UniProtKB/TrEMBL annotation:
<feature type="domain" description="Ionotropic glutamate receptor C-terminal">
    <location>
        <begin position="49"/>
        <end position="270"/>
    </location>
</feature>
<dbReference type="InterPro" id="IPR001638">
    <property type="entry name" value="Solute-binding_3/MltF_N"/>
</dbReference>
<dbReference type="InterPro" id="IPR001320">
    <property type="entry name" value="Iontro_rcpt_C"/>
</dbReference>
<protein>
    <submittedName>
        <fullName>ABC transporter substrate-binding protein</fullName>
    </submittedName>
</protein>
<dbReference type="Pfam" id="PF00497">
    <property type="entry name" value="SBP_bac_3"/>
</dbReference>
<comment type="similarity">
    <text>Belongs to the bacterial solute-binding protein 3 family.</text>
</comment>
<feature type="signal peptide">
    <location>
        <begin position="1"/>
        <end position="22"/>
    </location>
</feature>
<feature type="domain" description="Solute-binding protein family 3/N-terminal">
    <location>
        <begin position="49"/>
        <end position="271"/>
    </location>
</feature>
<keyword id="KW-0732">Signal</keyword>
<dbReference type="InterPro" id="IPR018313">
    <property type="entry name" value="SBP_3_CS"/>
</dbReference>
Length: 274
């Protein structure tokens, strides 16, 4: 009987030791994850560079001018955030369709690219608080009376940006004849004019900017209907809380001191932070 008790005692000791070791292992992983999120901010501070991922054909948020220089609302905002953090912004252009994967793989530290905050994206990355409210709109060719609202998209050919929320928005219209996906907004607007599309669904600031700059702007018609409200946010790797907090704090300070109001007026023609 004593021998049996001794065996039970040894067995229980082994089990307890295993449980304790497993607990320590779990705690170690948590610590490593926390350290990983801390390292991004430390890396930025030590290197003096904040690497920003963006898609560079999304005016007025971000685009290249005739001299191939990056410009736009997000560019000015990112530069202001970096400067106040005591570092410089380095912009890394990436196709929008792969920008989330590029962030997760460590190609850059954050996404500042007019990105709408969606439930699907929140499963993959974290976001700051919204910094711009965005809407999806419908653009048609002037004189096309067959599309007066979203109800008229049934049986039509509709252009959207590949990997954008426009692509998701049109999914709720079940009877669209064809959805064509484009890497560049300029390409879908051009196809609209030459008759390959009946309508384009696009982010409001982008669509209106391209139309305002076009020498054929009278040939476009922007419908008054807004299909969805989509707040834009700054994207971070999951768990990168220290960098996220630092960037958010910096943005809030820029908003308070009037810097964001100046940037807004420059690119939108109004102060959206009043």
């Amino acid at each position: 009987m004593k021998k049996f008790k001794k065996i039970i005692t040894i067995g229980l000791s082994v089990i307890c030791t295993a449980v304790l070791l497993a607990g320590c292992g779990g705690s170690g992983n948590t610590s490593q994850n926390g350290q990983g999120s801390q390292d991004t901010l430390e890396k930025v501070k030590k290197s003096g560079v904040l690497k920003v991922g963006l898609e560079d054909s999304f005016p007025p948020m971000e685009f290249r001018d005739s001299q191939n220089k990056l410009q736009g609302f997000d560019i000015d905002m990112a530069n202001a955030i970096a400067k106040k953090m005591g570092v410089k912004a380095q912009f890394i252009s990436t196709e929008f369709n792969g920008i989330v994967l590029a962030l997760k793989s460590g190609k850059f530290d954050t996404i500042i690219s007019g990105m709408s905050i969606t439930d699907d994206r929140k499963k993959q990355i974290d976001f700051s608080k919204p910094y711009v409210e965005n809407y999806q709109i419908i653009v048609t060719k002037s004189g096309n009376s067959s599309v007066k609202s979203s109800k008229d998209l049934d049986g039509k050919r509709v252009g959207v940006g590949l990997g954008t929320t426009s692509e998701q928005v049109v999914k709720k219209f079940k009877n669209i004849k064809e959805v064509k996906k484009y890497d560049k907004t300029t390409e879908e607007l051009q196809d609209l004019l030459i008759g390959r599309l009946d309508a384009v669904v696009v982010d409001e600031p982008v669509g209106k900017y391209y139309i305002s700059k076009s020498n054929k702007k009278s040939q476009y018609n922007v419908l008054s209907e807004k299909l969805s409200k989509e707040p834009m946010g700054i994207g971070f790797k999951k768990g990168d809380k220290k960098l996220e907090a630092e960037v958010q704090k910096t943005f809030d300070e820029l908003k308070k001191d009037g810097t964001m109001s100046k940037i807004s007026t420059k690119w939108f023609g109004e102060d959206i932070y009043k």
